[in-house]
UniProtKB/TrEMBL annotation:
Subunit description: Homodimer.
Gene Ontology biological process terms from the UniProt entry: amino acid metabolic process
Keyword tags: Aminotransferase, Pyridoxal phosphate, Transferase
Protein name from the UniProt record: Aminotransferase
EC number: 2.6.1.-
InterPro entries, per database record: Aminotransferase_I/II_large (IPR004839), AspAT/PAT-like (IPR050596), NHTrfase_class1_PyrdxlP-BS (IPR004838), PyrdxlP-dep_Trfase (IPR015424), PyrdxlP-dep_Trfase_major (IPR015421), PyrdxlP-dep_Trfase_small (IPR015422)
Length: 400
């Protein structure tokens, strides 16, 4: 009898975490390493949120809470959805989990049966397919390449839907590409979904507030009210409020789904951290004045990175609408040999050689379901980004 579960063989460790860990290890050894793998803002959690957490501790709010969120936070989430997305939810339609990842995982665990298919546009966040596999479902990646700016078309979505399709996972702006769907592009997808009433929509809106230029964020149930009863609108405080370590995600959806997700959570982690919930309450109810300056900062970083990477030989880097990632294509680098003699046979070899020879850590594209590419997180200072991009330029210039 095998000791480890057969389920474990269906999944793999997160490549983004692996890259970050490797970069940290090399740095600890004294190497000059620039890590561009981590997907988290580089500034501190805002002071008002930190103060709310301290006040919660001092008030003794350190005990168990309701399994899927304190009532005050659920009420604040309802207000947020109405205020920012035009979506009306009641508190019994809201769930709060230990990060956005748990929200998605709970929903899949609560709904997927063997044979159920989940459509996932690729490039995708690395955890989507593995969470589907853990839940017993079948991930169905659909590649949306650089020719469509990494956005799934209505025709592609229509072709991917089968009688076995349970969910369509939608992420805009996207991790890893930063691609954001316009209202017209999203409406084309929702029109398809309206023709297939057995398909549910899981909308991962984690990067909602990180959009640039004149891009307007929209979410599926907002665009098409007819999808409201089969949409789980997911979000969290991690990215916009620089609260990655606080681990608070949330979602709004139909009562029976939210209740089922609560059942999963009650027998796994139980409630999210009590102190983090009070911090999230302040994040949603308190001042939002820092969001615009943060957006402007990220936009400058995006423009810098896109400009410099497009000057690298063999690299094409589209300009994304949001998030804090770019996803350059390196077709012009494949098949060449690095200055240190490494054959760049694919994007994994590119990323490995780049780290060893220049000290720049990026995540290779195959991890996200589309090659040959790599992902850069530009959630770090402009000086560091300039240094990293120059190293990438030099590395690419040395390929023969």
């Amino acid at each position: 009898m095998a000791f480890l579960s057969d389920t474990l063989a269906r999944v793999k460790p997160s490549p983004t975490i692996a890259v970050t860990t490797k970069a940290q290890e090399l740095k600890a050894q004294g190497r000059d390493i620039i890590g561009l793998g981590a997907g988290e803002p580089d500034f501190d959690t805002p002071e008002n949120i930190r103060n709310a957490a301290k006040a919660a501790i001092d008030a003794g709010k350190t005990r168990y809470t309701a399994v899927d969120g304190i009532p005050e936070l659920k009420k604040a989430i309802c207000a947020k959805f109405l205020r920012e997305n035009g979506l009306t939810y009641q508190p019994n339609q809201i769930t709060v989990g230990t990060g956005g990842k748990q929200i998605l995982y709970n929903a899949l665990m609560a709904t997927c049966n063997p044979g159920d298919e989940v459509i996932i546009p690729a490039p995708y966040w690395v955890s989507y397919p593995d969470m589907v596999l853990l839940a017993g479902g079948t991930p169905v990646p659909v590649v949306a390449g650089i020719e469509t700016q990494f956005k799934l078309t209505a025709a592609q979505l229509e072709a991917a839907i089968t009688p076995k399709t349970k969910w369509f996972i939608f992420n805009s702006p996207s991790n890893p590409t930063g691609a954001g769907y316009t209202e017209a592009e999203l409406r084309a997808l929702t029109d398809v979904l309206m023709r297939h009433p057995h398909v549910w929509i899981m909308s991962d809106d984690m990067y909602e507030h990180l959009v640039f230029d004149d891009f307007k964020f929209v979410t599926p149930a907002q665009i098409e009210p007819g999808l409201y009863d089969r949409t789980l609108t997911c979000n969290g405080t991690s990215k916009a409020y620089a609260m990655t370590g606080w681990r608070i995600g949330y979602a709004g959806g139909p009562v029976h789904l939210i209740k089922a997700m609560g059942t999963i959570q009650s027998q796994s982690t139980s409630n999210p951290c009590s102190v983090s919930q009070y911090a999230a309450l302040e994040a949603l109810n308190g001042t939002q004045d820092y969001l615009a300056p943060h957006r402007a900062l990220f936009q400058r970083r995006r423009d810098l990175v896109v400009d410099m990477l497009n000057q690298a030989k063999g690299v094409t880097c589209p300009k994304p609408e949001g998030a804090f990632y770019v996803y350059p294509d390196i077709s012009g680098c494949i098949g060449k040999t690095s200055a240190a003699g490494t054959l760049i046979k694919d994007d994994e070899a590119f990323a490995s050689a780049l780290l060893e020879e220049t000290g720049v850590a990026v995540v290779f594209g195959a991890a996200f379901g589309l090659s040959p590419n790599f992902r850069v997180s530009y959630a770090t200072s402009e000086a560091i980004l300039e240094d990293a991009c120059r190293r990438i330029q030099d590395f690419c210039a040395g390929l023969k």
